């Protein structure tokens, strides 16, 4: 029964059974017909209907990892080394069965990072524009254009913008290089 609860990601049933006292050790020590212990079962990918309850591949992957770690925390450490009929340890089974979800999570995360970068660039553009605009003038030129302090401010602002852009490009190049 606990094996089914683990496979179907039924957390409430799992917690109820695990809280059953001395019988819980008998229930968690069983093997299925493929020689999988409960940690192997937790390492398998959740059913699609359970994954669909969480939006975003990265969040799905996080939930899967949390579930695996939860089951791992209650089993005897020797369970981590047990091999099933396919010769896989639970951690290997987790890695193999979650490979596609991991790739989707990586794409999803890169997409979010790209979108955030675009939004950040737009915000910075507006911020720099607002920094030079004075509300009481009609000409569009800064009132303090000929003041030395304003020229220092403009220069420092421009240098910081270009430094940030260069740093951002460096981080993207390093990120691309690490993924190649």
UniProtKB/TrEMBL annotation:
Residue ranges of every copy of the PGG domain listed in the record: 107-165
Keywords assigned: Membrane, Transmembrane, Transmembrane helix
Keyword tRNA processing tagged: no
Segments traversing the membrane: 117-137, 149-166
One Gene Ontology cellular component annotation held by this UniProt entry: membrane
Keyword flag Nucleotidyltransferase: no
Pfam families: PGG
Protein name: PGG domain-containing protein
């Amino acid at each position: 029964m606990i094996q089914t609860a683990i496979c179907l990601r039924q957390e409430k049933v799992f917690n109820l059974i695990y809280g059953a006292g001395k019988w819980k050790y008998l229930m968690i020590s069983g093997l299925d017909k493929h020689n999988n212990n409960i940690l192997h079962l937790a390492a398998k990918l959740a059913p699609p209907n359970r994954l669909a309850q969480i939006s975003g591949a990265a969040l799905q992957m996080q939930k899967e990892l949390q579930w695996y770690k939860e089951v791992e925390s209650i089993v005897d450490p020797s369970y981590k080394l047990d091999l099933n009929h396919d010769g896989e340890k639970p951690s290997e089974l987790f890695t193999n069965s979650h490979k596609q979800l991991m790739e989707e999570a990586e794409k999803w995360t890169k997409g979010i990072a790209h979108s955030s970068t675009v939004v950040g660039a737009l915000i910075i553009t507006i911020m720099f524009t607002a920094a030079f605009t004075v509300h009481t003038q009609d000409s569009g030129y800064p009132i303090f254009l000929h003041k030395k302090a304003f020229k220092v401010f403009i220069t420092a602002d421009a240098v910081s913008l270009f430094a940030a852009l260069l740093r951002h490009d460096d981080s993207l190049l390093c990120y691309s290089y690490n993924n190649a």
